Amino acid sequence: MNSQPLRALVVRIEGPAESPEQSEEYLDELVFLVHSAGYGVQEVRSYSWRRPDPATFLTKGRVEEIKALLDEKKDNIDFVLVDADLSAVQVRNLEKAWEKPVTDREGLILEIFARNARTAQAKAQVELARLEYELPRLAHRWTHLSRERGGIGLRGGGGEQQLEADRRKLRRQITQLKEKLEAFRRQAEVRRHGRETLPRVALVGYTNVGKSTLMRLITKAPILVADRLFATLDTTTRKVVLNGTPFLLSDTVGFIRLLPPRLLEAFHTTLAEVREADLLLLVVDASSPGYLEQIRTVERTLETIGAAEIPLLIVMNKIDKLTPDQRELLEESWRAQNPYPTVFISAVAKLNLEALYAAIVQLLAEIKKQGRETSSRPLS
Ligand SMILES: Nc1nc2c(ncn2[C@@H]2O[C@H](COP(=O)(O)OP(=O)(O)OP(=O)(O)O)[C@@H](O)[C@H]2O)c(=O)[nH]1
Ligand SMILES: [Mg+2]
Known about the structure:
Layout: E1 7-13, H1 20-36, E2 40-47, H2 60-72, E3 79-82, H3 88-98, E4 102-104, H4 105-116, H5 120-134, E5 142-144, E6 152-154, H6 159-194, E7 200-205, H7 211-219, E8 236-242, E9 245-251, H8 261-266, H9 272-275, E10 279-285, H10 291-304, E11 312-317, H11 324-337, E12 342-344, H12 353-370
Parallel strand pairs: 1-2, 1-3, 3-4, 7-9, 7-10, 10-11, 11-12
Antiparallel strand pairs: 5-6, 8-9
Helix pairs in contact: 4-5, 5-6
The chain binds guanosine-5'-triphosphate and magnesium ion.
Guanosine-5'-triphosphate is lined by residues 205, 207-213, 225-227, 229-232, 254, 317-318, 320-321, 346-348.
C-alpha cells in the first residue's frame, strides 16, 4: 500500500454573490475538507461564478485550461476535486476530457465520513449513503472506489451485462442496509425510552468548533477530539451531574455548509438525540471570521432535522484565540443584537466554565418549569 496521500487539484467556483473574504474562507474550509479526507492538495483553482454547463459543469474554456494544467503536472496530481454537486454525466465527461478521476463535494464528504465512522450504526449509515451515491455513477470508466481500494481509483470497463449485475447487487445491498438501520433505530428508541426521566441536553454546531472537547471536559469520558472536520460521527451520551442537577449529555456529528442532504438523511437515527433533546448547546467557534454564517448553517440544519423548536444556549467557544479587545467587541456586538442566552468560554483554556455550567442548570430549571414554551432562538 502506497503511504503517500493522493494529491488533488482542487477546483472551486465562487458563489454569485460571494465577498472576497467569504471566498477565502470557503476555500480554506475546502482545503481542510480535503486534508480531513486524508488527501493532499497539490493545486487550487478558483473561478468566478458562471452558469453551469449541463455537459461538463465548467465552461469549455475552463475545462481546457485545467486539461493543460493537468498535462503539465501529470505525475503530481492524482485526481480532481470539483467543489460542486456534479451529475453522473458531468463526472463522466470531465474524466474523459481530463483523463483523471474526478470527484465532487458529496464524494469527498462521503470519504471523510467513511474514514471516521466507528460504530456499526455509523458505518451502516455512511455505507448506505455511499451506495446510493454510487448507483447512478456505476457506468463510469473512472469512479470513486470503496475504502478497500483506498479511495479514488481506476475501474475497468465491464460491459452492459456486468453493469446490470453490479446495479442489482447495489440495490440488494441498499435494501439490506435499510433493514439494518431500521433495527438500529428501534433499538435506540427502546434505549431512549428506558431513561425517559432525565432531561436531555445535546451539543450541536458546525464541525470542528469544540463540541467533543466540551463533552470530554464535562463528562470526563475519553471522547475523540481532533483538529479535522467531522472527527465525530457517532452519538455518545453520558449522564452528568452539574451543581446537583442530573441530565444526559450527548455529543454528535457536526454540520457544514452545503452538507449533502443524503448524508443528513442517512444520519437521521444518530441525530435523534438532537431532535429529542430538551436543551441544545449550540457551540460556536467564536474565533472564526465566519461564525455568524456558521450559526445560520446550524440553524437551518436544525430546521431540516426537525429540531428548530428546542431551546438553545449559545456557547461561544475558543475565546482564548481572541485578544481581550476582540473578545469585548464580539461580546458587545453579539449581546446588542441577540437577547438569547449566551456564554463566552474556552474549553481548552478552561475559561468561564462556571458560567456555562450555571447557565445549563438555570435553563434546565426553567425548561422544567415552563415546558418547551421557553424556546428562544437567535437570528431567526
Ligand atoms: N484554541 C482552542 N481550541 C479549541 C477549543 N475547543 C476545541 N478546540 C480545538 O478545536 C479542534 C476541534 O475540537 P473538537 O472538540 O474535536 O471539535 P468538534 O466540534 O467535536 O468537531 P467534529 O467532531 O469534527 O465536528 C481540536 O483541535 C480542539 O483542540 C478552545 O476553546 N480553544
Ligand atoms: Mg466531535
